[in-house]
């Protein structure tokens, strides 16, 4: 039978009481520095690992936060998850990533006490699910919806404002036939960027043909195929495209190039997010640079403040910046 190293073994190794070991390992100041050092060395020699389940029962905390989503594909998520994990560790918490399209799996983990709080990125938790979380006093910060309550906060980008700003910029260059590559209906950034695009053209009194709104699902290949189908099918083409994110913009450029067009000589294209991949893509994309790293770190800080009772839920809106580069220009005469 395998013997698990216990706090009793550490006490014996360090020649101190179990209570002294507990205080030393938990940073209680009453333990003399020399004694604490002896306990820590003994624990290290024995490869002692605290019983986290037992500790959880005593403190009613896991010191773990969760992050749920249905996919972590793409450069946006690599930056976001790294920022969340790094800030969580800095704050003394571990990160548990729930990657599932089945919301029951996510809800069971949240409501079952697997984490102290959750950062959410998907819209599959509906009003009833959120109500269940409130009943259990689950703390949550969302980055896919703008929400603010006692237990829930959010950290989102100013996507409506920047969706409008992106379209306004193309209008200022002289474009009046502008198409939009949308993301996923129901996702905050996708909906808000589309709403900003519509608002800009409405204010300019420019009608939007229904076929000018394409679905790219925030993915390069699906955006590329959607634009290729559009180019094959339509005769009245726009002179510019606003893509819901940078991957969709890259897919749009590749679709245009596959038809022999040049960007920006024939069409202007712009995206959102300012992902690192743009440094290696030609032409350099005009985009809205969003502080993805800051979004992740802010979400963690706010969630831990909620967990520790230091704040109530707050809606944080982070500002993106227009970055003008080589993929946009004046329309051809």
Automatic annotation (TrEMBL):
Gene3D superfamilies: 3.40.50.2300, lambda repressor-like DNA-binding domains. InterPro entries: HTH_LacI (IPR000843), LacI/GalR-like_sensor (IPR046335), Lambda_DNA-bd_dom_sf (IPR010982), Peripla_BP_I (IPR028082). The keyword Transcription applies. GO terms for biological process: regulation of DNA-templated transcription. GO terms for molecular function: DNA binding. The keyword Transcription applies. SUPFAM superfamilies: lambda repressor-like DNA-binding domains, Periplasmic binding protein-like I. Pfam families: LacI, Peripla_BP_3. PROSITE patterns: HTH_LACI_1, HTH_LACI_2. Keywords: DNA-binding, Transcription, Transcription regulation. It comes from the Bacteria. Residues 5-59 form the HTH lacI-type domain. This is LacI family DNA-binding transcriptional regulator. It comes from Enterococcus gallinarum.
